[in-house]
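Morning F.,

Quick status update on the modeling queue. The single chain you submitted on Monday has been processed. Sequence for confirmation:
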Amino acid sequence: MALHANAIRFSLQRICLAPVSLRYSRHAACRPSLEFSFRSNDVPKRIQNVRFLSSKNEKIIDLSYSDIDPVYVPIKKEIVDEQDLQIEDQHSINSEIVIKCKRKNLNHERNQKYDKFKEIPLASKGWKNKKAKDDYFTIHIYNDDYLPQSRKSMYDFKNTGLSQSILHILKQHEIIIPSQIQALGIPSILRGNNTLLAAETGCGKTLAYLAPIIQQILAHKEKVKFKNQFNSPLALVIVPGRELADQIGEIANWFTEDLPLNTKVITGGHTKRQIVNPVFEENDIIIATLGALSKLTNTGIYSMRYVRHVVLDEADTLMDDSFNELMTHFLSRFQFKGCNENSNLTQLLLVSATMPTSLSDILGDIIDMDSLNKIKTDKLHAILPHVQQRFIKTNLGEKPSNLLLHAKKLSKSNTPTIIF
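Structure tokens below.
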């Protein structure tokens, strides 16, 4: 299909170097999500079903990403060596390969049928063995000629319950139509429910919780004529890493220019200096890494007395083995809302790009699990349609050099890339 002359042409790639997954993405309306996943062969056995619409022999993907402009997305086909072409049989050349592997017997084709009595072969088969070094596979979800459709007026911010002042600020940043997670999550948060927001990366989860929290804080301050105490926030956004904290802080600053709101970002690296020479100021919202916030709270620099909202962004990471003990200890200082309890208690929000497991085991002693309203999108765990992905098996010490090599190749081809 010929590409429209005014179409924006770009190709994104995601490169994952086992045992650490390094993911590439591109976001516009909201902050990029920075995620590390320490896995060696955690590769799905199946590619999720994709809903296609047919129109004049054109393949059209039905999307609801509010932060991706409608664009033609040509995915560059891999250059195949002549030697490889001689090895491949004619069937492989003519077929639509969805997962293309270095070991061609592990390729997966579109609409391929599997024997229900046999195990589906993994593209990463044998990657636990050191001899698998330099093995790779690439995921090609769509053809070169598909046209994604986005910014559909399926939802409206007016139906979410956000105030005109909040909507005006969103409009100033060209955010007019909510994404699915925003349309479903904002009303739940405004009702005061403990809420789990689980949605794909890049769909606007930050604004899905930040906008309603800001609205509730402003309403509370006006209702009770609250006089902000120094270093006594009304809301906490807890994250696992400083880069994510800085990005959320940038989004929060959208609202501080026009609204009577104070925000502060706290990250590690200079915690001792903050303890020795503390700064006392008014803070409505604190966005912080868990370690730094815990230290400053334990030393009495910050008071959690007035906190009404606690957000765990990237909750799946905060609840893994590296964080959950510290996190549960920190959360034990709050009294969270239940199903039929006083609305003045603290609201808990969990935000994640995956559906966290073992929620009851970790949070069962902290909140009433029946009070947690779970909201997830229909594209949760789906692969972003405009991102081509390659997974490469590499040894631990060779990851930096391999990553640099691929980054140089992408730079030479003018491929927009974000590494995190």
